């Protein structure tokens, strides 16, 4: 039954639902992922997408399974040697999760690009593994024009490489690790002021006094401070310390003058620093407000940009220069009633602000001929709650990365100031691609080739650096090492990349958490990594 | 130095196989094929500029992995499944795996060696079966729940001589125990550590989108206890909040779990709340809703209830894949000296982009686990034994669970306090409110403390302050 399936899925996916919620899971279940090349890296990536329950996958691979393939790949058995690799891998990957629908196309991506490039338009994301440069560039162009996200992955010896190519990726739920609270103590709103006025600390009995939320305490003492300091907030350390002292003096004392144990007051004192942070629109959000997409809303605009524009208008109108109130407060020492009442003050204000934003959304939608219900209240509320944490990721295209005219020379050169920086592996991978173009093989695959290929690879390195006018030095050791690798794809490095890439794909599909931008290098020799924007 | 740890063990080729092993029965089917190990061979048969100084290219390295090297994997869950796969596909064939758990539906989103039909079966067994059938020639020997307890684990160690231990555990206590176990196996001659007695420990941990991997050489590099502060103690809500001033939905759930259940015993006398029983959770959920309604608290859901009662940590396949892979790479490096191992701690976080940070954790001067010297305890003569107990449990570097304290008083061994045996607890409870002086303890005297966090007794030295 439908209900039984839903219940068993809830159980099965419980641990991940706690990370991205039911709505996140829904985006996964509606996704169709394309994997090109079922090498160990490819199947490891797909494994980590099949397990959490993507809707469907399609493996595109024209190769037949070799002995080497069966040796490092958990999803290719030695019995499948000689069979088409896409088909063989699909069987064992499909078996991981009955909820997922697995498909395969026994064809090389180059052939598909020749005959039917629109084949790739149907996918939520295309993941290309161990692809030669020419195929990457061709496919990159097709996917860029079709606005299909493209994730390129490569395991080469002990080096892992990922490149994300997506024009514009918006994130409402970025789930920041250490977000600052939105308490508005520096510019208290009307309802909050009324609420704090309902407290008279001096006339409270001890129980109430000790269980008053620290937010109220800071607000009260701040009010007093402002009246005594010409409406100026405590600015420097000296003033903040003096302010803390006023709160300290507010602690009830025994007849003997000994301060009682009032944890809520201690909390207030501890939180003064962050509580006095000025309410500000983060510069990242200001930048989004100033962007083209925000300022020209059309019928093609995605809900993200419509809502952002609405928030911008809110800021200039009802918000009086501030974003909609988030509506959450941290837990603190207080009795239930005082805490809940205070929490409700923030919640109601947040609802009010979201309602105002909603009106702006409706106006905008009408102005471009779309029905006002096309963006739900629920989505608007979620957007407002996350207004400080919105993120937009824009990656440069492969064409831009590879073109002599737009190569990011500065980034490459500055990292290469340290000749052992992970950037050297990026350059080596580019050089190795060049080697493949010239010799139709990778360097050092067979033992006898290792020595002689070193010089050949060095020629490729130098021509690469010359073409891009990069005056950087690549140590001979790295050229030797890359010949030594012989294009090996060891399982543990494939598995590391498998986990990394799968999670980036999940971020793209779910629009939750923030994807990397745009080049990631993993060095298994030193267990270090780096991200570059190329 | 690292490679020399294995030189002795490498010379003894393990020919006989242990009793439970899955044998590729005499059907004559070969489990080798052309090119099988070609990806690995490039790292073992070719010299290179970044190899470990001890590395010697040749065919011996692969032979050692395939025939001799013995690995113990602790845990067959999220990390364990990944580790077994990674090790098997890297050439390790003699693998033992320990896990006392059985398979649950909620494991299936990441513990990929298990299927719906396996629910209820022991993890170690199912994992071993799967790997052995998927990776021909690999011999994973399981030690499932009915075999595992501290005594048997110790016997396992003494009998089987592991080269490397890899941990994919979900509890800090278990990690510390394992850490202590390996420390207890160290041999010192005239105060000098015999490197042959060192068994490297690779430890991995994950939580949501965060994880870490570390390499520990017991007696030489930072051990688990040296960096205990990296695992801050779990904070429980204060009782007064739970009992009379709830504010969050979690407070309501804890109230039902801690106070209401023991009072009402809804499923009968002596029936303890079982987080895995949906009926129990449902009961707690309903009562929590009632409690929350009393205080106008919103947000109590079934999912939250289960999460609080079971202390659920969110988990996904991807993080486990990354961390296990990093650990397996280190096992490979240590076993073959192909490269210099991680020195010694890597953290990973892919919430915002992908972030790794690698550093060398330092040994603590006065680590209670890996330093041979008793740690000083500073108390006044008039301090009560309870204060010592509190220190042992609350101190961030010790974080003991329920320490048992004994001392030699007037020539006789005296148990000062022991919580885990009810009769002894009753007998010694009065000592907690006595002062150290009243208990006959003297300045400089040694206290022996036993606890679940370590297989060895930890020695402390009492230093009276004025």
From TrEMBL, chain A:
Record-linked InterPro entries: APP-BP1 (IPR030667), ThiF/MoeB/HesA (IPR045886), ThiF_NAD_FAD-bd (IPR000594), Ubiquitin-activating_enz (IPR035985)
UniProt GO MF annotations: NEDD8 activating enzyme activity
SUPFAM superfamilies found in the cross-reference section: Activating enzymes of the ubiquitin-like proteins
Keyword Signal: no
All residue ranges annotated as the THIF-type NAD/FAD binding fold domain in the record: 13-530
Keywords: Ubl conjugation pathway
GO biological process: one example: protein neddylation
A GO cellular component entry from the record: cytoplasm
The protein's annotated pathway: Protein modification; protein neddylation
Pfam families: ThiF
Domain of life: Eukaryota
Function: Regulatory subunit of the dimeric UBA3-NAE1 E1 enzyme. E1 activates NEDD8 by first adenylating its C-terminal glycine residue with ATP, thereafter linking this residue to the side chain of the catalytic cysteine, yielding a NEDD8-UBA3 thioester and free AMP. E1 finally transfers NEDD8 to the catalytic cysteine of UBE2M.
Similarity remark: Belongs to the ubiquitin-activating E1 family. ULA1 subfamily.
PANTHER family: NEDD8-ACTIVATING ENZYME E1 REGULATORY SUBUNIT, UBIQUITIN-ACTIVATING ENZYME E1
Protein name from the UniProt record: NEDD8-activating enzyme E1 regulatory subunit
Species whose genome carries this gene: Oryzias sinensis (Chinese medaka)
UniProtKB/TrEMBL annotation, chain B:
Keywords assigned by UniProt, alphabetized: ATP-binding, Ligase, Nucleotide-binding, Ubl conjugation pathway
InterPro entries xrefs: E2-binding (IPR014929), ThiF/MoeB/HesA (IPR045886), ThiF_NAD_FAD-bd (IPR000594), Ub_act_enz_dom_a_sf (IPR023318), Uba3_N (IPR030468), Ubiquitin-activating_enz (IPR035985), UBQ-activ_enz_E1_Cys_AS (IPR033127)
GO CC terms: cytoplasm; nucleus; protein-containing complex
One Pfam family, short name: ThiF
Active site: 240 (glycyl thioester intermediate)
An annotated Gene Ontology molecular function: ATP binding
Pathway the protein takes part in: Protein modification; protein neddylation
Catalytic activity, reaction form: ATP + [NEDD8 protein] + [E1 NEDD8-activating enzyme]-L-cysteine = AMP + diphosphate + [E1 NEDD8-activating enzyme]-S-[NEDD8 protein]-yl-L-cysteine
UniProt key word Nucleotide-binding: yes
PROSITE patterns xrefs: UBIQUITIN_ACTIVAT_2
Name of this chain's protein: NEDD8-activating enzyme E1 catalytic subunit
EC number: 6.2.1.64
E2 binding domain location: 377-465
Family: Belongs to the ubiquitin-activating E1 family. UBA3 subfamily.
């Amino acid at each position: 039954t439908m209900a039984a399936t839903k219940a068993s899925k809830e159980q099965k996916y419980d641990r991940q639902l706690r990370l991205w919620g039911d709505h996140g899971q829904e985006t996964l279940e509606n996704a169709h992922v394309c994997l090109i090349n079922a090498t160990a890296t490819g199947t490891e990536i797909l494994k980590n997408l099949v397990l959490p329950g993507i809707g469907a996958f399609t493996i595109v691979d024209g190769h037949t399974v070799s002995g080497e393939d069966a040796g490092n790949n958990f999803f290719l058995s030695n019995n499948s040697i000689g069979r088409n690799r896409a088909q063989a891998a699909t069987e064992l990957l499909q078996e991981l999760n009955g909820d997922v629908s697995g498909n395969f196309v026994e064809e090389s991506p180059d052939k598909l690009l020749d005959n039917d490039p629109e084949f790739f338009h149907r996918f939520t994301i295309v993941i290309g593994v161990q692809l030669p440069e020419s195929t990457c560039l061709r496919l990159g162009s097709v996917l860029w024009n079709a606005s299909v996200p493209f994730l390129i992955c490569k395991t080469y010896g002990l080096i892992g490489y990922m490149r994300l190519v997506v024009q514009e990726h918006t994130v409402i739920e970025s789930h920041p690790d250490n977000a600052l609270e939105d308490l508005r103590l520096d510019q208290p709103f009307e309802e909050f002021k009324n609420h704090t006025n309902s407290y008279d600390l001096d006339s409270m009995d001890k129980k109430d006094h000790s269980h008053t939320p620290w937010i109220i305490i800071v607000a009260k003492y701040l009010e007093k401070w402002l009246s005594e300091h010409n409406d100026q907030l405590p600015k420097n350390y000296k003033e903040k310390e003096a302010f803390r002292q006023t709160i300290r003096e507010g602690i009830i004392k025994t007849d003997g003058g000994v301060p009682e144990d009032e944890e809520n007051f201690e909390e207030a004192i501890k939180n003064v620093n962050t509580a006095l942070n000025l309410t500000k629109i983060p510069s990242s959000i200001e930048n989004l407000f100033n962007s083209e997409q925000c300022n020209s809303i059309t019928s093609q605009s995605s809900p993200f940009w419509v809502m952002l524009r609405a928030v911008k208008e809110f800021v200039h109108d009802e918000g009086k220069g501030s974003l909609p109130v988030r509506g959450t407060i941290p837990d603190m020492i207080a009795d239930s009633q005082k805490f809940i009442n205070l929490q409700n003050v923030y919640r109601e204000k947040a609802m009010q602000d979201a309602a105002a934003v909603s009106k702006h959304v409706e106006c905008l939608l009408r102005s471009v001929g779309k029905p006002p219900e096309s963006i739900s209240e629920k989505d608007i509320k979620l957007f407002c709650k996350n207004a400080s944490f919105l993120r937009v990721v824009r990656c440069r295209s492969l064409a831009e990365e590879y073109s002599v005219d737009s190569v990011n020379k500065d980034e490459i050169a500055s990292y290469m100031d340290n000749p052992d920086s992970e950037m050297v592996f990026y350059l080596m991978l580019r050089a190795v691609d060049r080697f493949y173009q010239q010799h139709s093989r990778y360097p050092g695959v067979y033992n006898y080739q290792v020595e002689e290929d070193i010089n050949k690879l060095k020629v490729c390195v130098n021509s690469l650096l010359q073409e891009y006018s990069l005056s950087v030095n690549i140590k001979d050791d790295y050229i030797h090492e890359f010949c030594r690798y012989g294009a090996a794809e060891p399982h543990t490095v494939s598995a590391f990349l498998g986990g990394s890439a799968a999670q980036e794909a999940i971020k793209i599909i779910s629009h939750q958490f923030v994807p990397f931008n745009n080049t990631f290098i993993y060095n298994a020799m030193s267990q270090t990594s780096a991200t570059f924007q190329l | 130095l690292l490679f020399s740890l294995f030189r002795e063990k490498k010379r003894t080729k393990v020919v006989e196989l242990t009793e439970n092993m899955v044998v590729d029965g005499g059907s004559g089917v070969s489990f080798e094929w052309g090119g099988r190990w070609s990806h690995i061979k490039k790292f073992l048969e070719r010299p290179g500029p970044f190899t470990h100084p001890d590395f010697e290219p040749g065919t011996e390295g692969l032979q050692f992995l395939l025939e001799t090297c013995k690995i113990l994997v602790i845990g067959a869950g999220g990390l364990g499944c990944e580790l077994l796969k990674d090790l098997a596909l890297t050439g390790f064939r003699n693998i033992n795996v320990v896990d006392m758990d059985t398979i649950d539906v909620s494991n299936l989103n990441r513990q990929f060696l298990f299927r719906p039909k396996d629910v209820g079966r022991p993890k170690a067994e199912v994992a071993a079966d799967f790997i052995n059938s998927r990776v021909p020639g690999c011999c994973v020997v399981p030690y499932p729940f009915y075999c595992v307890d501290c005594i048997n684990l110790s016997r396992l160690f003494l009998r089987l001589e592991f080269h490397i231990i890899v941990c994919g555990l979900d509890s800090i206590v278990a990690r510390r125990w394992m850490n202590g176990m390996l420390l207890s196996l160290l041999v010192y001659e005239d105060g000098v550590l015999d490197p042959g007695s060192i068994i490297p420990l690779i430890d991995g941990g994950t939580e949501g989108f965060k994880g870490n991997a570390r390499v520990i050489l017991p007696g030489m590099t930072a051990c688990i206890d040296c960096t205990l502060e990296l695992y801050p103690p779990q904070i429980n809500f204060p009782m007064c909040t739970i009992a009379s001033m709830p504010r969050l939905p979690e407070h309501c759930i804890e109230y039902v779990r801690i106070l209401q259940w023991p009072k009402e015993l809804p499923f009968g006398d002596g029936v303890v709340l079982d987080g895995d029983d949906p009926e129990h959770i449902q009961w707690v959920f309903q009562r929590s809703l009632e409690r929350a309604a009393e205080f106008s608290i919103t947000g109590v859901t079934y999912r939250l209830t289960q999460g609080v009662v079971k202390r659920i940590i969110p988990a996904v396949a991807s993080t486990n894949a990354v961390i296990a892979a990093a650990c397996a790479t280190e096992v490979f490096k240590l076993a073959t000296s192909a490269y210099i191992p991680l020195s010694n701690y890597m953290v990973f976080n892919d919430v915002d982009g992908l972030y790794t940070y690698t550093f060398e954790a330092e040994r603590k001067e006065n680590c209670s686990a890996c330093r041979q010297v008793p740690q000083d305890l500073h108390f006044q003569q008039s301090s009560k034994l309870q204060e010592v107990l509190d220190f042992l449990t609350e101190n961030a570097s010790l974080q003991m669970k329920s320490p048992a304290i004994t001392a030699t008083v007037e020539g006789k061994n005296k148990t000062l306090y022991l919580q885990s045996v009810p009769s002894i607890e009753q007998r010694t409870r009065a000592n907690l409110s006595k002062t150290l002086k009243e208990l006959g303890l003297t300045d400089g005297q040694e206290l022996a403390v036993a606890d679940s966090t370590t297989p060895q007794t930890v020695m402390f030295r009492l230093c009276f302050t004025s």
